[in-house]
Recover the amino acids of this structure.
């Protein structure tokens, strides 16, 4: 009988914090920028330069800790993690080993079968990011870009509590939402502002002992993480089945080939020769400061969902999607506050907005249009000033350029024709020009009227009131 195996997974999640400047200097943290343009003597590790801690980093880290039920270490400090690598300009990274800012937290994840599970968080610590090596295949050289060097990170280290790719994705999604709601990071996996390393081992089902774990890096989408977990689980089971040992190592995932390869054998903490950073004073978080951070915690997804149900009475499905992004939730609330049409606002966000986002491969966080202009558009449709199909065309303009729909309708003469006399005259012409469809309709072919409505709309350049067109057509036929 084939042996049953259980997968044991723990994650190390790095999140780039949304500060304007780096953790120990005043350089910009903006993504992009020409290589080495966001740098100074501190973040390029020049001798004699001194780091100064960015207070906002401590606030964000503590806020994430509070939101994930951690104990906050009110007296914490920074340590140097020593290693040599070209993208690491000082030859050490400033991190926290001995006294991380947050410890012993947990989050509850919701699984597809409706059950919830608690995933424990071992610790969250603050650290600086390294630079980035850019490999030129053509010239066989590597260039180094220090723009990312010194960008503030928190590393969220979970306990090995996850047992499947589904649980891992649910945990990452929960973290992403908490951190986005806090405004601590945009958590864009594709830009590297959220990165997950997967520590995975397998063991025989029922066994208490842990197997040998590997760490998989270079995972920049939820789907890549799910594929990497599946592949690594199978690779380890194959090794065990054929009597070979799993080696503790760091592996790099290639998502195009759906294959991982060994990068290096896993170092131990003592290999890094950690010691307290002599250039940075210890961090003291007073009770008053901690209370202030706690008092600024936002309303998170779960509380929002309950409030939306009570306050706006929209369907659970809508609520689930709207609250899945802080940007969508904010847009929904702001637009509804102006026009007081929650279901109509929800329809525009769930329908046209999501469609365009998908087409343009954008995230809800990239939306730039204002709630005022969406509210005006809804007002124009409600008042019968424009019809639905014109509204959709105008919405595309709002999405791209945030135009004022009221001005746009005036300037382009898009007002709906509600003039019965004008409509009747056009419809009479359409009926005269399409005797076959008229006969089909009179012979019981209901669908034929659709064609006549279409021809009328075409003749009126899409501006006719569809309800009136239907009504007049039926009356004349």
């Amino acid at each position: 009988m084939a042996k049953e195996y259980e997968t044991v997974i723990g994650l190390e999640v790095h999140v780039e914090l949304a500060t304007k400047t780096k953790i120990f200097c005043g350089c910009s943290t903006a993504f992009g920028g020409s290589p080495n343009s966001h740098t100074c003597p501190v973040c390029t590790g020049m001798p004699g330069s001194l780091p100064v801690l960015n207070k906002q980093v401590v606030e964000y880290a503590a806020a994430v800790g509070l939101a994930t039920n951690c104990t906050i270490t009110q007296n914490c400090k920074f340590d140097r993690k020593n290693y040599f690598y070209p993208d690491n300009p000082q030859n050490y990274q400033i991190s926290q080993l001995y006294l991380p800012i947050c410890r012993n937290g947990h989050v509850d994840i919701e699984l597809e079968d409706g059950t919830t599970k608690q995933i424990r968080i071992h610790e969250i610590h603050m650290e600086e990011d390294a630079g980035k090596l850019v490999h030129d295949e053509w010239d066989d050289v590597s260039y180094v870009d220090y723009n990312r060097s010194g960008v503030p990170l928190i590393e969220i280290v979970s306990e090995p509590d996850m047992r499947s790719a589904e649980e891992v994705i649910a945990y990452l999604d929960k973290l992403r939402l908490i951190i986005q709601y806090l405004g601590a990071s945009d958590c864009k996996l594709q830009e590297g502002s959220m990165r997950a390393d997967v520590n995975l081992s397998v063991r025989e089902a029922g066994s208490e002992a842990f197997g040998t774990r590997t760490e998989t890096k270079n995972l920049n989408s939820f789907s890549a993480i799910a594929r990497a977990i599946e592949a690594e689980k199978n690779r380890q089971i194959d090794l065990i089945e054929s009597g070979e040992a799993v080696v503790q190592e760091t592996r790099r995932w290639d998502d195009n080939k759906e294959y991982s390869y060994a990068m290096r054998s896993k170092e131990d903490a003592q290999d890094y020769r950690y010691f307290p950073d002599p250039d940075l004073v210890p961090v003291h978080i007073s009770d008053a400061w901690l209370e202030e951070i706690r008092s600024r915690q936002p309303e998170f997804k779960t509380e929002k969902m309950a409030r939306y149900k009570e306050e706006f009475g929209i369907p659970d499905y809508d609520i689930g999607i709207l609250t899945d992004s802080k940007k969508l939730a904010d847009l929904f609330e702001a637009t509804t506050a102006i026009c007081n049409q929650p279901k109509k606002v929800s329809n525009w966000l769930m329908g046209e907005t999501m469609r365009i986002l998908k087409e343009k491969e954008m995230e809800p966080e990239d939306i730039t249009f204002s709630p005022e202009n969406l509210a005006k558009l809804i007002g124009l449709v409600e008042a019968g000033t424009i019809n639905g199909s014109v509204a959709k065309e105008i919405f595309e303009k709002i999405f791209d350029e945030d135009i004022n729909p009221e001005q746009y309708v005036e300037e382009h003469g898009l007002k709906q024709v509600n003039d019965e006399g004008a409509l009747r005259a056009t419809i009479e012409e359409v009926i005269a020009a399409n005797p076959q469809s008229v006969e089909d309709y009179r012979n019981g072919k209901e669908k034929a009227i659709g064609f006549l409505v279409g021809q009328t709309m075409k003749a009126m350049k899409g501006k006719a009131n569809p309800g009136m067109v239907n009504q007049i057509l039926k009356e004349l036929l």
In short: The longest strand covers residues 116-128. DSSP finds 15 helices and 16 strands in the chain. The radius of gyration is 29 Å.
